[in-house]
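=== Per-residue structure ===
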Amino acid sequence: MSNSLIQIGDLCSLAKGKIGIKKAIQGEYPLVVTAEKRLSHNECHFNKPSVIIPLVSSTGHGHASLKRIHYQDGEFAVGNILCVVTPKDEKILNANFLYHYLDIYKEELLVSKMKGMANVTLPMKEIAKIEVPVISIKEQAEWVKLFEKTSKETNKLKNEITQQKTLIKKLRQSILQDAIQGKLTEEWRKNNPSAESAKDLLKRIKKEKEKLIAEKKIKKQKPSPPISKEEIPFDLPKSWEWCRLGDIILKVLGGGTPAKHAPDYWQGKIPWASVKDLNVEKYLFKTLDTITDKGLKNSSSNLITNNNVIICTRMGLGKIVINKIPVAINQDLKALFLSKCIDINYFFNWYKTLSILGSGMTVKGIRQEALLSFDFPLPLLEEQIAIVAKVEKLFAYCDDLEKQINKSQLDSDMLMQSVLKEAFEA
């Protein structure tokens, strides 16, 4: 398309959104915010087709970024950290055309104009200076039609990619489920017929506990109740054994949050973790500066030594990590100290198969007594290690598949951008 360029400020009116998102009152009008999904508001502020552009960085922290811009028509409201760009004459500039044009050239036209070192923003006066092509309304309509056709095809591919990602997620869960049912190590058991049984392993764990109790390193626990046939979720290999979680855990440590005025709360060197710090894939090994902005001077909340399991028991149920650094924890977390007869990675894989619902009126949680009553499928230690190796190998295949899918997604996005840019530059 051959065309001349003219500034947005000459073609459009620019206005800042009128409502703080937290102050919005749910109502009948769509409320455009920085997120893709619309909220709602009880007042209408705009009623013409417009392009809505965030005025703040999507990622913050000194990084210029815009995840998305928006197109909206009808009657709507807009958050006050976004700019509403409305064509003055719809016979000269189509808002939908402007939206698509700014979207495909977002990095060059919008992100490059963002300013600031820490709080990165996009000044409205910079938006007004952006130049857009002046072409006929007919050509604009043709280009929008080209975009919609190209977008339809790429959306099909994106939906397929999303489905593939979902299947890989299900595949990972299937691998873990097969692992804890002994299906991944059938060959291992054939090759190791003289290995001890899990019953013998339970006896060794019991002796380990008795020794630690005698040394006053752990407290004596209540005997675990027997497991009824109705509780057993699936059959195990003959050499395995169902047991209670309490049978294989030596002790449980809960955490707590010291009062802010307490002398052990500020400027300490002990990392202190809460639920948000468990948003990692498996290992908790970050330094004090990145795990939390506060460190404890002493371990009044109980210091968890390296290579133990930390789980969420009040908020974030189902989260689990293996800590690679000594750390203190808050009241929403518990540390589980496993018997040396339990491979920590096998335990981690088993825990990831659980669906923990919890109980409570306001915040769902799980009591320690209920946690220790969970049924645990126990193979002997050598087989646990073999299972972990098998899972890691299969997960590596899943990782490779995900990389290929992510590349396909990137290629799809780049293809659409290329087709549309070519239409402008032809």
The chain has three domains: 4-134, 136-195+380-426, 198-379. The first strand starts at residue 4 and ends at 7. The mean pLDDT is 88. The domain at 198-379 is CATH 3.90.220.20 (Adenine-n6-DNA-methyltransferase TaqI; Chain A, domain 2).
